[in-house]
TrEMBL record:
The keyword Hydrolase applies. PANTHER family: MANNOSYL-OLIGOSACCHARIDE GLUCOSIDASE. Residues 33-389 form the Mannosylglycerate hydrolase MGH1-like glycoside hydrolase domain. This is Mannosylglycerate hydrolase MGH1-like glycoside hydrolase domain-containing protein. Belongs to the glycosyl hydrolase 63 family. The keyword Disulfide bond does not apply.
Length: 399
């Protein structure tokens, strides 16, 4: 790898670093995203771990510092609220943080750090927070005990306007961004009216069991189980491993059809058959058999009518009516989704395809810089500038 790229990533992480009291965290982009976000901070920990494990630990410790009493960790922390006109300074019905969460990548970040420096004390210090967080997801987000974790707002998936949520929101596949934003703001009001009480909010307003969220949960519970084991909590270790297996089984039963895992919505698990990068998320948690994985990659990932564009991987299949190469989560490439797919491919030994994705991601960054997303047809950079997720390229290049 060019030392140059490694240095550039580090400079970006330092430029976006902020402090509040004893807390240290990183902004995804200082102009466009001036707060701390949940899954972003997990990506930051993964990136920082390649430079300095202490900084990676600080990132996660500041993330968990605002945990709610019920165990939820909010997806946005407004450490230093900016001016009132900032559209991300949303009224979530409380001060200082949002009231929803994001994909639970924290155990993954913690485990990566532990792999580097074997610091048991760090595991012990962060364990109570993550224990309660995953327990919250298992208890509050699965009121019917079907072993699938629900989200109560599309933003909890991290893919705000993804077409996976159109049906549940009652929007058409060719909606405008304005229509989507208006509908999501209405949902926040509805969420406030049900006081973010997850079972109640999900039943009444928006109830999606999302494939990437649940796949991330499966792998993270497995790692949480290993973390528990390391610090001598044998009972917890068995419990979390069991929960991971239960979600895997439920996903196979309720989401899998013709080789594809589909997100579902509503109480009766209606499948949302919209092809997005999310169909590859189960590879990340190694939930498919070798045969199933091979078929998925051959028929869909490497299919030029679906995901194998000149600049892979679009977040939405080219032949889906919602595909829009400039549509935020409705088509553009995001380096984090490439990273998830890259890791998933390596789980199954698909080294060549993984290598192609790594090279393509590196080229996008070298050509257009650390942009938020990239156009999958032209490779052009789009959205926020100096956006940290590009730093995940270091984790692809060094592993
Ligand atoms: C956007 C993304 C979300 C991310 C946030 C901060 O809202 O959709 O996934 O966490 O920006 O980068």
């Amino acid at each position: 790898m060019s030392q140059d790229l490694k240095t550039k990533v580090y400079e970006l992480m330092l430029t976006n670093r902020r402090h509040k009291g004893k807390h240290q965290y990183t902004l995804p982009s200082s102009n466009s995203y001036p707060y701390q976000w949940l899954w972003d901070s997990c990506f930051h920990a993964i990136i920082l771990n390649h430079y300095n494990t202490e900084d990676a630990k600080k990132e996660l410790l500041s993330l968990v510092a605002n945990q709610f009493e019920n165990g939820m960790i909010p997806h946005m922390i407004y450490w230093k609220p900016q001016n009132k006109k900032d559209f991300q300074l949303i009224n979530w019905g409380k001060e200082g943080t949002s009231s929803i969460t994001q994909p639970p990548m924290i155990a993954y970040g913690v485990w990566e750090i532990f792999q580097k420096d074997r610091d048991i004390n760090f595991l012990k210090s962060i364990y109570p927070y993550i224990y309660h967080f995953y327990k919250y997801l298992l208890n509050e987000r699965d009121p019917h005990e079907k072993h699938l974790i629900g989200i109560m707002n599309p933003d909890e998936s991290g893919e705000d306007n993804s077409p996976r949520f159109d049906l549940a929101l009652g929007l058409s596949p060719t909606q405008t961004l304005q229509e989507n934003t208006k509908r999501r703001f209405k949902l926040i009001k509805q969420n406030i009216s049900c006081r973010f009480d997850a079972p109640f909010c999900m039943r009444n307003f928006f109830w999606v069991k999302d494939v990437p969220f649940n796949s991330i949960m499966v792998l993270n519970l497995r790692l949480l189980s290993q973390i528990a084991q390391k610090i001598g909590k044998k009972g917890d270790a068995i419990y979390f491993e069991k929960k991971s297996d239960e979600i895997t089984k439920a996903m196979r039963e309720l989401m899998l059809e013709d080789g594809i895992f589909w997100s579902t919505y509503g109480e009766d698990y209606k499948k949302i058959k919209v092809k997005t990068w999310g169909i590859f998320a189960p590879l990340f948690a190694k939930m498919l058999t070798q045969r199933e994985a091979k078929k998925l990659v051959k028929n869909h990932l490497l299919n030029k009518k679906e995901f194998w564009t000149d600049y892979p991987i679009p977040t939405v299949s080219l032949n889906d009516p919602s595909f829009d190469p400039k549509g935020f989560w409705r088509g553009p490439i995001w380096i984090a989704t490439n990273w998830f797919i890259y890791k998933g491919l390596l789980n199954y030994g698909f080294k060549d395809v993984a290598e192609d994705i790594k090279r393509s991601s590196e080229n996008l960054i070298q050509e257009s810089g650390f942009r938020e997303q990239f156009n999958p047809l032209t490779g052009e950079g789009q959205g926020a500038q100096n956006f940290t997720w590009g730093g995940l390229i270091i984790d692809m290049l060094e592993n």
